[in-house]
């Protein structure tokens, strides 16, 4: 039996295991297919462990999507690290779009969050925070109108890629990014008025 110190050390890991299992379950079965029992089995924890961290199924779903959104923003931000020129910002945008389009799990999770947020305001806030944070990264480099256009390209390109609607090759993505980011849209290093 673990000591009290060992149990305290396991708790953050246990919560992370539960969140990871919830996201895996959502990616495999959708939000509708998630049950606390399935998540407990997937995480290899007692069902009571979920109740310790989350008040109900909706609380678990909310926490899992919040975790997904945070990790997604960190990954999104990492593509732009070190970019200081228009060409570097364009290349970062293309890399980010191509990488996301290649992650079926992330596309499914993002789509599930979108669908859920249309029905439940609690989850809509997670979606809005996620969207604003990602747009904030792009807004460091591009003006607001360009940022919104790039965000729309992001949403459309990843869904089209996942659904095999049209070609979403890296070359096509690069061409779209170039067309959406004329030199005057690049604002990195420009003093604010």
Quick recap:
The chain is an all-alpha fold and 193 residues long. It has helices spanning 4-29, 36-43, 47-53, 57-80, 86-101, 104-119, 121-139, 144-163, 170-180.
List keywords for this structure.
mainly alpha; 2 domains; 76% helix; Arc Repressor Mutant, subunit A; Tetracycline Repressor, domain 2; 193 residues; 0% strand
SSE inventory with pairings:
Blueprint: H1 4-29, H2 36-43, H3 47-53, H4 57-80, H5 86-101, H6 104-119, H7 121-139, H8 144-163, H9 170-180
Beta-strand content: under 5%
What name goes with the CATH superfamily of the largest domain? Tetracycline Repressor, domain 2
Q: What radius of gyration results from the CA coordinates?
A: 19 Å
CATH arch. level architecture of the largest domain? Orthogonal Bundle
Name the shape in a single word: elongated
CATH topology of the largest domain: Tetracycline Repressor, domain 2
C-alpha end-to-end distance: 62 Å
Number of domains: 2
Q: Could you name the CATH class of the largest domain?
A: Mainly Alpha
- Outline the biggest β-sheet: none
Q: Percentage of helical residues? A: over 70%
Q: Number of helical runs? A: 9
Description:
Helix 4 packs across helix 6, helix 5 (86-101) runs parallel beside helix 8 (144-163) and helix 8 runs antiparallel to helix 9. The protein has two domains: 1-54, Arc Repressor Mutant, subunit A (Orthogonal Bundle), CATH 1.10.10.60; 64-185, Tetracycline Repressor, domain 2. The protein is built from nine helices and no strands. By secondary structure, the chain is mainly alpha-helical.
């Amino acid at each position: 039996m673990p000591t009290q110190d060992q149990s305290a050390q396991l708790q953050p890991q246990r919560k992370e295991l539960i969140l990871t299992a919830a996201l895996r379950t959502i990616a495999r079965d959708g939000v509708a297919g998630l049950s606390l029992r399935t998540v407990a089995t997937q995480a290899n924890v007692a069902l009571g462990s979920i109740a310790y961290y989350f008040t109900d199924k909706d609380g678990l779903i909310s926490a899992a999507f919040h975790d997904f959104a945070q990790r997604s923003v960190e990954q999104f931000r990492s593509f732009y690290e070190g970019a200081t020129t228009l060409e570097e910002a364009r290349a970062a945008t293309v890399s980010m779009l191509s990488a996301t389009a290649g992650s079926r799990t992330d596309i499914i999770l993002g789509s599930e969050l979108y669908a859920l947020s249309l029905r439940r305001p609690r989850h809509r806030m997670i979606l809005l925070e996620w969207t604003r944070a990602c747009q904030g990264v792009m807004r460091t480099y591009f003006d607001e109108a360009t940022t919104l256009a790039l965000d729309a390209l992001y949403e459309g390109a990843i869904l089209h890629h996942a659904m095999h609607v049209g070609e979403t090759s890296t070359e096509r993505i690069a061409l779209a990014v170039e067309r959406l980011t004329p030199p005057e849209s690049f604002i990195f290093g420009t003093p604010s008025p």
